[in-house]
Amino acid sequence: EWMILTILPVIPPDLRPLVPLDGGRFATSDLNDLYRRVINRNNRLKRLIELSAPDIIVRNEKRMLQEAVDALFDNGRRGRAITGPAKRPLKSLSDMLKGKSGRFRQNLLGKRVDYSGRSVIVVGPELRLHQCGLPKKMALELFKPFIYSKLEEKGYVTTIKSAKKMVEKEGKDVWDILDDVIREHPVLLNRAPTLHRLGIQAFEPVLIEGKAIQLHPLVCVAYNADFDGDQMAVHIPLSVEAQVESRALMMSTNNILSPASGKPIIVPTQDMVLGLYYMTRERPLAKGEDKFFSSPAEVRIAYDHGEVDLHARVKVRMPVAGSRSAVEEDEDAVRPSQMVDGHAGNGNTAVERVETTVGRVLLYEIVPPEVPFSEVNRTMKKKELGNLIDTVYRRAGNKATVIFADRLKDVGFDFATRAGISISIRDMTIPPQKPQLLEQAQKQVSEIQKQYNNGVITDGERYNKVVDIWAEVQDEIGGAVLKGLATQVYGQDNEGKQVVGPSFNPIFIMADSGARGSEQQIRQLAGLRGLMAKPSGEIIETPITANFREGLTVLQYFISTHGARKGLADTALKTANSGYLTRRLVDVAQDSIITEDDCGTLDGIEMTPLVEGGEIIEGLGDRVLGRVALDEIRDPFTNDVLVHANDMIDEDKVAAIEDAGVEMVKIRSVLTCQSRQGVCVKCYGRDLGRGHIVNMGEAIGTMAAQSIGEPGTQLTMRTFHIGGTASRRAEQTTLESRNEGIVRLHNVNTVRSRDGSLVVMSRRGEVVIAVPAGQAERERERYPLVYG
């Protein structure tokens, strides 16, 4: 009874409009058509029953009525879809609700909002991290209502109408009021596609001339933005609560760490990396080499006066970390000149003599005092900079990190400019042995071709051998290119010996620092382009022997278009799939929320280092960092407690665990959490994006979904250049041990071969490196042995 509709609901006419067109016709909504069909058939059925028509006709009419109603509710679900005039299926009630353009996703969950605008972005290197540049015209439009009320409040105008006129004239008073209004009023910047929560962040606006939004260079990584014409949208939080929330949770300065990995996401890129790398490199035989300085300040003076070179190796008395600020600022502190053997008269150890370079001392000027000089005393590449920012964050806190990151940006840009690095075609040195190597390879290939012609080998073998030969040559020439670029001769020292050191070749500097480019790209510039893949994925056996410096022939150029086209097609197709994956992941995981402090479970999971083929992919420390220990963790030698049960394992504890050589740690895990709904704080551990233990009510499911989906989408945008064979490598025949110890063999059977060497005959044999521990031994590492 309840399954049968006796009354058909009709939606209001506003939702199915009828619009008169010129020429006396009407444009109508599809729903009107569908309703009309139902009414027509219903009336016809009524007449047929009144006329007591034959049973078969009435039954047919009933079936048609049912079909009309089905089409109204969900067209095309049952049988053929009913089509309109242009063979287009009509849009039914459920079509109006479902999908991306349906009622829910279009109008209810996502709306177009007032108080928003969009514009092209340009870089704003002089901004602080919490600022963005907002064009004056945009700000005036966005904050209009606020300006009107302020104008009335200040007594400039009495009515809204006069306020409007005043704003349109853009007088001096209006700009003053605008300055007043936007002070301390954060705005939200969003770049589509928003793949993770860092795709929307809050900034304080700074009024600028022009029509483009200025963006701080350090937040580009989080937005995945570049300045080749990207656009961004600005939104304005209106209520006080929204403003407070934007400031506390969404401010760019509060989002230093990536919620996916817990590593800093505000790291210098490109020019900044280049500048900092250039600044911290050392150059042999530079001006002022081996001079002594009594303090960092003295180094700065000498550098400013041109007495020492930026890259010169010097010896400096550096304050020990923690006591640095005291030495520099305190009036009564013991000056280095009053020190006795590096000890202050009052017994405080305050300085140590360090061998370093001038540039590193200058860089140390901006580092917070909590961080030791040893963190800066190395060539700073991109990875090292990330680690440095991480260290500063853990030791000096959020505020110091933000200030430090901004200074790092300024210094990086400054020295990149002073370095004056550019690329010339002569920087790509082609290795002199290239023609000879190509000739040898060509000989080998024709030898193999001969064997094939004589019927000694099959076509498949010939193909594989040829491809292998070329892949080997490609690697060899590539290696020669990199070797040639990486070192240079600096001249002769006092004894007349040649001084060779790492090169200052611009291309090498860019790739080595991690600023731009990769080894693969350098090989293509100065080595050879190598083997190319067909669209089907198989490798074309004639490689491109030219490189970009020599230039490609027409044939070579056309062969290399395969890869480029495939790359473009992949980008277009896969990005959509990956975005859809993120959406489905969020749908599944959005219920996972932190609901209680401790579920009291006794379960957990055992963590050991991830090992693949004898190589450690992820160490134990990385895997347990930020998790909560299930049982207490003890030192296997001394049996001291390293971590108590239910304590979070932080960086210091990880260091202790790794030093003690612990093999396996039991931790609490989300997988074993016994909360009725959601997950408990103890099982989740550290909130990676904030760096402390997770808060109650944090939406961890959504965060996890975004953390998987975001890199997925990024990866599809990168393309591969060469398939399969080019990366064939020889099997690994040696193992390297990380610790000293005694080698023991576990269940290994061997036989002696003809030349007297041992051959392993067991499939599950292992090599164990053991360390004597008192009476017993304890194993530090184990590796599987390959059969044969």
Concise account of the structure shown:
By secondary structure, this protein is of the alpha+beta class. It contains 25 helices and 28 strands. The strands form eleven sheets. The protein has a six-stranded mixed sheet. A three-stranded mixed sheet has the order 9-10-11.
Secondary-structure map with pairings?
Elements: E1 18-20, E2 26-28, H1 30-50, H2 55-73, H3 93-97, H4 103-108, E3 116-123, E4 131-135, H5 136-142, H6 144-154, H7 160-169, H8 172-182, E5 187-190, E6 200-208, E7 213-215, H9 220-223, E8 231-235, H10 240-250, H11 270-280, E9 292-293, H12 296-304, E10 313-319, H13 324-329, E11 351-357, H14 358-364, H15 382-419, H16 434-453, H17 459-486, E12 487-492, E13 498-502, H18 506-513, H19 519-526, H20 554-559, H21 561-589, E14 594-596, E15 605-607, E16 610-612, E17 615-618, H22 620-624, E18 633-634, E19 641-643, H23 651-660, E20 665-667, E21 679-680, H24 681-684, E22 686-687, E23 692-693, H25 700-717, E24 742-746, E25 750-752, E26 758-760, E27 766-773, E28 776-784
Helix pairs in contact: 1-2, 6-7, 6-8, 11-15, 16-17, 17-19, 21-25
